[in-house]
Amino acid sequence: MNPIDPQRRADWLLRAKPVAGIERIEAFFQGKAFAMHRHDTYAIGRTLAGVQSFKYRRGTTHSLPGRTMVLHPDEPHDGQAGTGEGFRYRMIYVQPAVFQQVLGGRALPFIEGGVTNDPRLWAATEALLQQVSQGIDPFEQSDALAELAHALAAVAGTPPPRSKGDFASAQRAREYLDAQCQQAVSLGALEHAVGRDRWSLSRDFRMFYGTSPYRYLTQRRLDAARTMMLRGMPLADVAACAGFTDQAHMTRHFTKTYGIAPARWLRIAGGASERVVTIVQDTRLPGA
Question: Its Gene Ontology molecular function terms (predicted)?
Answer without folding.
Answer: DNA-binding transcription factor activity; sequence-specific DNA binding
